[in-house]
Each structure stands twice: as structure tokens, then as C-alpha cells.
Amino acid sequence: MHVYRFTSNLFEVEPGEDEEINPRMYGRQLAGWLKARLDQRGQQVECIVAEDWGRCLMIGREEFALWVGCGSSPDYDTAKQGDPPPPKESIVWHCFAEAELTAWQRLVKRLDATPALEKLDCDLREILSNEPAIQLFEAGDHTV
After folding, report:
1. For 59, phi and psi rounded to 5 degrees?
2. Is 93 exposed, middle or buried (0-12, 13-18, 19+ CB in 10 A)?
3. Alpha-carbon distance 26 to 86, whole Å?
4. Whole-model pTM?
5. pLDDT by residue (tens digit) across 99-128?
6. How confident is the model at residue 143 (pLDDT cuts 50, 70, 90)?
């Protein structure tokens, strides 16, 4: 599947949100925004979990784990300790769809997560592409 990278002025960095994950990594508002749009498309988000790398929007766990990861790309190479968060317009955000199957699920139960993962990836792409305040990077372009 795809990793979507983009800039946008839609998402504010909330005070202290990077204390839940890793320093200079943000995305609480992005996760909430994505949750609302995924819910509208029938991808019911069960919960949003803070992870070391960002936020995980858990969609399902019945047959296999289906989720969306999202967050910001940290600016460790340019930021110094104590610097305020970067302006929202210069943050590079990212998100991606993921399906996790155990070896048992793949080999013995022969579950195929491909249709669910492709649908989730398609929904994600349409959500991001249809929002005028989001500027998606082309594949391989990660500069702002």
C-alpha cells in the first residue's frame, strides 16, 4: 500500500501532545480528522492509540488487525532542544493503511486481508485527495 505524505494548514500542534509519543512528533488533530472521515465512509474507527511513531486508528480486530497510521515527520535534523513546534504549514504529515495477520491466520486459516486493505487505502487516498487544504506530495517528493 501507499504512504501518503502531505502538508496542510488544517492541523494544529496541541501543547504537550508529543509527550504521549516521542519528542517533536505530532498528529492528534490529524488522527481525529481522519477518524471522522473514515467513519463517514463506513470504516468505523474503534479507537485511536498513541504509538511511539504517531497515532494508530484501529478499524478492526475480528479477523485481523486493520488500521491506519498517521503522524508527522520529525524535524530532528533542524530542531534544537527547547525549540517550539514548527509552524503547521511546514509540518510534513503522513498516513498509511495496514493489515496485520499472524502466521496462523495466513497459513492455517488462509485469511486474505487484501480486499479490506485495498478498500481502506482507496478511502484514505480519496479523503486526502478531496481535501483542498491538503497538498499531497508526488511519490518520491518529500521536500516542502
Report:
1. -95, -40
2. buried
3. 10
4. 0.88
5. 877 665 655 666 788 889 999 999 999 999
6. very low
